[in-house]
Amino acid sequence: xxxxxxxxxxxxxxxxxxxxxxxxxxxxxxxxxxxxxxxxxxxxxxxxxxxxxxxxxxxxxxxxxxxxxxxxxxxxxxxxxxxxxxxxxxxxxxxxxxxxxxxxxxxxxx
Length: 110
What we know:
mainly alpha, 7% strand, disordered N terminus
């Protein structure tokens, strides 16, 4: 049974995400990928992206949130609202995983 935990409108579909000490290897599922991203800093995400351990969508979502939630120190293009629905979904899930409220532009219906 899916667990509603990452965003109020989205369901975690990973069967092992809520089990203690149990997770998929990187790249196995979106929910475990988000859980991993939530523990990393920007440098770690960039390093993992450059070696192929973070997907393009995960990288874009993380960088957009970094730019949106950080007052300084980000690239201007990261502030642009992502158009890819997958990037938007990952960004919302990442907010929830970090215990943050998703910015309104990520939850707006287009």
